[in-house]
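Teaching assistant's notes for section 4

Start the section by putting this record on the projector. Ask students to predict, before seeing the second block, whether RNA helicase will look compact or extended. Collect guesses on the board.
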Amino acid sequence: MTWSDGVTESTRRPQTRPTQLPYVPPHLRNNCNDGAFSSMPTSLNDYAVNNANSYGFTSTTESTQAPLGRGGRGYGHRGRGGRGRFHQTQEQEQEPYNIASKLEELEVNVDDESTNFGAYEDIPVEVSGSEIPPPASSFEEIELGESLNRNIKRCKYVKPTPIQRHAIPIALAGRDLMACAQTGSGKTAAFCFPIIHAILELNRFSKPGRVAFPLALILSPTRELACQIYEEAKKFAYQTRVRVAVAYGGAPIVHQLHNLEKGVDILVATPGRLVDMIERAKVSLSMIRCLALDEADRMLDMGFEPQIRKIVQQMDMPPCGSRQTLFFSATFPDEIQRLASDFLSNYIFLSVGRVGSSTDLIAQRVEFVPNMDKRNHLMNLLRGQNANGTHGKHALTLIFVETKRGADALEHWLSVNGFPAIAIHGDKVQMERERALKSFKSGYTPILVATDVASRGLDVPHVAHVINFDLPKDIDDYVHRIGRTGRAGKSGLATAFFSDQNMPLAKALVELLQEANQEVPLWLNDYAKRASNIVGGGRARRFGGSKFGGYDFRRDAPYEIENDPYSSTYGSFDGTTSSYDLSHANSYAATGVDSYSTGSYGHEFSHETIVASGWD
Ligand SMILES: Nc1ncnc2c1ncn2[C@@H]1O[C@H](COP(=O)(O)OP(=O)(O)OP(=O)(O)O)[C@@H](O)[C@H]1O
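Reveal the predicted structure now:
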């Protein structure tokens, strides 16, 4: 279907628990006179004020959109990513952590804009579903149209990232999509480009009025992320007739409504504010042709599911099958996939990199730090950065803590001790949250202490170091948190303070570190083994034991598909291989295939694994 078709833990200690010694980074042992962040700027930068959407409204011609379909060809080829470098020696265990040299090695303290797009070479891609449109190797090949291509060039995007190469053709073909890709790999553009393109093709733009009738709705779990997506979408839609607007809580509704009245084609919103606007009859979803959920697993977890069901199923949005639905996230637990499938029709599952994996661009370090030592340990780390010059505007540090009170307390303690820090959490009013983020982004306050409110989606350039002062309970949250660094081909560093309380996370953490070719401390392995015996390993892996690649939960068991025009159940995958014309993806290193078809599904359902070269 294309848009045109349907408007219509335990406290037992492991024997190898490390003995805590006062931490002194090697480069600081003969140098204790550092003044933390002595070179901070003295005045607050001028902050740019977000302008409201100011595109001139244009009315439109009613036209029937030409089909967006680009050939739903099944393909099959394969290759498994050669992973494997994984060292662990006693010597390494005992070696103190030299953060400064690590940062140097990672080149995170430089002013240049160097990126390592080659890091996205050999990234495993897994696609399953029926009639999968082939990937594209360049933006030109995707044919997004002149105005969008001009904006892509303005953004200095030379080549599509792997997620973009696969997801954009799928979305352009009008297919529903559940897509997973590593943090910082360009998912925002992967859903924005097809949406903007489809509206342009439709050539039917919104009109001003008391009730807004957006054609596309993008939902975000946090206000900050909604604003970020809005800004990105505005860039992508620059000098087109496509109007973008944003609606989020904590800010005056009047101003947002005023903007909506000018007409809106793409509405970016947080669920609560959107429901409010719909109930005030200021927004109608009856014209929605595309629904996109960013951080989709978060959107559908316990907190948001009722609101999402209300918006999608109980308002006036066209039903599943009559609209296009796109779900994106870096993590996708299978129970959430199951939930998500309620909102999707005959969808394609796409994963670029292992679902929930972290990118190799992020150097991860886990240190055993008892709770009472955390503050001193943190101070030593920060002093180490300062001594190395890795601080300030171009090497921001993001510190995650568990609680809002903890965030305020740590912010205060850091500030009192001469480290410019600011906190962001859900108890702050929206203006304070925005101010904190701006102060951090500008480098004026190069340390941000945050709760998980800042863990998802936020794209802040120059975050060189993410410190998990308190580790989260869920490995997915850890993945999102560390993903605030190492974005868009740049390197980053992530340090986690692990204490006895974090035992339930140990197994999943070990797996994640191994997959990302990171060093695993012996003591952490020991915790992981004990965790398995004591607490069952926590929520280790969520993918039904699949060791590689993304995991489409539909592969597990016969599954009842709702809203499926072809059949009521999937049979189990039978391993039938589908073929793929390699000439179509000239930059693919394809070496193997896992491909399946469903017996009772009525048409081919392929599952494949490929190794994509890309984003170089
Ligand atoms: N094709 C491209 N070429 C160069 N840079 C790109 C490209 N696509 C996206 N980027 C940049 O990469 C950065 C990360 O993109 P984005 O925020 O969309 O990542 P994400 O996958 O949504 O991350 P997260 O999972 O944390 O939400 C952004 O600064 C974006 O401008």
